[in-house]
Amino acid sequence: MAGWERRISRRDKSWNKKGHMFPNYKKISLEKCREIMNKDGLHYTDKELLKVRDFLYRITEITSAHYERVKERERNGELTDNDKKLLKRK
After folding, report:
1. Domain boundaries, the chain
2. Does the pLDDT of residue 9 top 50, yes or no?
3. 27 to 2, 11, 51: CA distances (angstroms)
4. Is the pTM of this model over 0.85?
5. Both ends of the chain: CA-CA distance in Å?
6. HSE (side-chain half, CA atoms, 13 Å) at 74
7. How many CA atoms lie within 13 A of 9 on its CB side?
8. CA triplet 84, 86, 7: central angle to 5 degrees?
9. What per-residue string of b and e applies to 58-85 under the rule 16 or more CB within 10 Å gives b?
10. What is the 3-state secondary structure (H, E, C) of the chain?
11. From 1-5, 32-36, 52-56, the region with the lowest mean pLDDT
């Protein structure tokens, strides 16, 4: 686990010990990844596909955790100017 991942996981108790916020979700299959990614004549190895898929899931987890923290600050009346900009983009 990289340093930034440890910092995030320590701050947010919803992450599990392996650093995943949603440990029980079902990831899309390698076959589906291949179907999506191998368009336009590009071909990726299974290892490359797994790395991309896992990276996208991690980005989703980080984004979800951040959004939940912003929504919590909104409920508590503690929004920053950056939080307001984020919520306005929806």
Report:
1. 3-88
2. no
3. 22, 25, 13
4. no
5. 31
6. 13
7. 15
8. 105
9. eeebbeebeeeebeeeeeeeebeeebee
10. CCHHHHHHHHHCCCCCCCCCCCCCCCCCCHHHHHHHHCHHHCCCCHHHHHHHHHHHHHHHHHHHHHHHHHHHHHHCCCCCHHHHHHHHCC
11. 1-5
Query: Cβ distance 66 to 15 under 8 Å?
Result: no
Buried b (16+ CB within 10 A) or exposed e, 6-19: eebbeeeeebeeee
For 18-51, the pLDDT digits (tens) are 555 555 678 899 999 999 998 888 899 999 999 9
